[in-house]
Design a protein that fits this description.
single chain, 248 residues, alpha/beta, Beta Polymerase, domain 2, 2 domains, 8 helices, 6 strands, binds ligand 0O2
Length: 248
């Protein structure tokens, strides 16, 4: 029977360099597990609804510099044990969607995965950050099956629209450029842009809903053609049957 363990225990027997390699190996494995899971969910959605809720998926492991900075910001000493215990986004997956409704649809699909444990949720869409930042964050734990043990490994999943991602990547660059102390007018402009992004997302969502409603009223010409072909095919089969019956 393989024992389940936390990552802190999994690394306890190693020297520092080996621990670092073990930790990164585990986080990389977790990214692969979660990435594949999300691709399958997206493919299934396409198969059932002929629609992909995920525009694209990005995965990344946080850089050592960024990990150390965050530990310092939280007031912890730099150690591998502190890093796995206190930094939740070492392994990160970002899901980019077209519409806000896709975000909640995906979050629900992820929450329904029995082998993923949802540890926490931060809904910065319903409650945006002061900066204007919008995104839906899920912290999940995924079991990594090793040869003689199972290690629960944390992955942060960020779900946002293309427009929210555009805003966040620019804001991130500006934040780093000014080391968190951007001039007031830039912060102000960014907040205004965040407002425009929210309006654009709302408009795109209602436009898409209007398009779907039109399509429901007027069936897709492709579908009509397929149905017509089917009817003609059946009629041909009936005719063939009649000819065969007459020949009998
Ligand atoms: P980087 O460089 O992107 O990795 P917690 O993880 O719960 O201990 P934290 O880190 O505040 O606390 O969690 P949260 O709020 O879920 O944020 C984690 C990540 O979300 C950040 O990681 C960013 O990637 C992103 N994020 C959060 N707030 C903002 C924001 O105002 N603007 C932008 N552009 N991104 C944001 P890092 O480590 O801060 O940065």
């Amino acid at each position: 029977m393989r024992g389940e363990q936390k990552m802190e225990n999994a690394i306890r027997n190693y020297e520092d360099v080996d621990s670092w390699k073990t930790v990164i190996f585990l986080y990389n494995s977790a990214l692969k597990e979660v990435g594949t899971k999300l691709e399958i969910l997206n493919d299934e959605f396409q198969h059932v609804h002929q629609y992909n809720p995920i525009e694209h998926i990005k995965t990344r492991i946080k850089t050592p510099e960024s990990i150390v900075k965050k530990l310092k910001r939280y007031g912890f000493e730099t150690s591998i044990e502190n890093m796995v215990r206190h930094i939740n986004d070492i392994a990160g997956v970002r899901l980019i969607c077209s519409f806000t409704s896709d975000i909640y649809r995906l979050a629900e699909m992820i929450g329904n995965q029995s082998d993923l444990r949802v540890l926490s949720i931060k809904d910065y869409i319903k409650n945006p950050k002061e900066s204007g930042y919008k995104s839906y964050h899920m912290l999940v734990s995924v079991p990594i099956y090793l040869s003689d043990s199972v290690v629960d490994t944390k992955v942060e999943i960020q779900i946002r629209t293309i427009a929210m991602d555009f805003w966040a990547s620019l804001e991130h660059k500006i934040y780093y450029k000014f080391e968190g102390r951007a001039p007031e007018f830039i912060s102000q402009d960014l907040q205004e842009c965040a407002q425009m992004v929210a309006e654009l997302d709302d408009k795109m969502l209602s436009l898409n809903e209007a398009i779907q409603a039109c399509l429901a009223d007027e069936p897709d010409p492709g579908v009509v053609e397929a149905v017509a072909e089917n009817i003609i095919g059946n009629a041909r089969d009936q005719k063939t049957l009649q000819i065969l019956r007459k020949a009998e």
